[in-house]
Amino acid sequence: MDCLPELMRFNNGSPVTCVRDWEERRKEILEILEKEAYGRVPDLPGDVKGEILPKRPGIESMPCCSGHAELLRISISFTAELGPFSFPLYLFRPLKKEKAPLILLLNFRGGAYDQYYPVEEIIDHGFALGIICYEDITKDDGDFTDGLAGLYTRRDDGTDWGKLAMWGFAARCAMNYLETLPFIDADNVCIAGHSRLGKAALTAAAMDRRFRFTASNDSGSMGASLERGKHGNAETVEAITRTFPYWFCDNLRKYAGRPEELPFDQHFLLALVAPGYLMVGSASGDLWADPVNEEECCRAVSPVWELYGMAGYRGGEGPCETDGNYAEGSVAYHKRDGIHFLGRGDWLCYMDFMEKHLK
Ligand code: GCU
């Protein structure tokens, strides 16, 4: 797409020509995204702990995945600015692996099982699966006194963090604990999310390169989809800030109806994941998320991976066909047939890609 803000130029106009330049440029980009879109994210707490909780009767105590996995319920806790905070995390670990790569999913619901993850299939591929329910962090509404939101001071200067950044932050806190577990391969952790949580996963990955993989599924507006040049009736900054203003910092609302004035576009967010491996998934029937712009965003970030000597996005000439899967580069894109959903077809794409690139 033409007219995107320049990724590979510093704010002062000088070009980014090497990795060292990029490492500086990414700080500028992070500053723009925090100030204008997602809000300022506090430093990670220094005292994150995890505690494996006793199994409760019922599903948690039953054998799972044909006996090939163990299900752990863990309490993650730390000291936030204004007091202590804790939240639950479910972890399925494959018993046949001494150290398993991990997919950490920000999910809509808590509990062990859900329609958004075929857990036995994930275990059979040799991955551990961690699940954080987003509303265990803070409710999906404009109440900034709830949960983690209430434990950080707000400045009311337009840059206070929104809820997407909070959900992403929680995943990063969990990572502090998960990376210490002897049966987790901390070099091969993927942060994943669907839809609003695909957006949240991207904010986490952009700020934390311990996640070697990122999977953003149907994340759409303010996720993996470019905000300029939306197709059809796809969601815009105007629509998203009207319905979900609390996902973002207040400054984003300045750009409602004026996407061409945004000092960034979503390729800025995706680019921060480099040199980690990025996977973007769309669904053919999810026009609200604008699949064409999700793929365009993948194209737009290639130069950053190339600076690292890696292949960027290796897509076809035109827009990806339904059931297309371009996974040759370091940025992978697929378009699954069907509706807005995180389905088995998506998981297979993500796991295949990860298997190719495990360290
Ligand atoms: C709404 C919203 C999207 C979001 C989606 C979801 O459709 O407009 O931006 O991705 O909800 O989270 O399911």
Written overview of the protein:
The protein is an alpha/beta fold and 359 residues long. It has one domain (19-357): Alpha/Beta hydrolase fold, catalytic domain (Rossmann fold, 3-Layer(aba) Sandwich), CATH 3.40.50. It is 27% helix and 20% strand. It has 8 helices and 10 strands. It has a 10-stranded mixed sheet with strand order 1-2-3-5-4-6-7-8-10-9, sandwiched between helices. It starts with 18 loop residues before the first helix and ends with a helix. Bound molecules: alpha-D-glucopyranuronic acid.
Low-confidence stretches: none
Order of helices and strands: HEEEEHEHEHEHHEHEEH
Shape: globular
Q: Let me know the average pLDDT.
A: 98
Within CATH, the superfamily carries the name Alpha/Beta hydrolase fold, catalytic domain
Radius of gyration: 19 Å
Topology-level CATH name: Rossmann fold
Classify the secondary structure makeup into a structural class. Answer: alpha/beta
Tally of distinct domains: 1
Instruction: Tell me which ligands are bound.
Output: alpha-D-glucopyranuronic acid
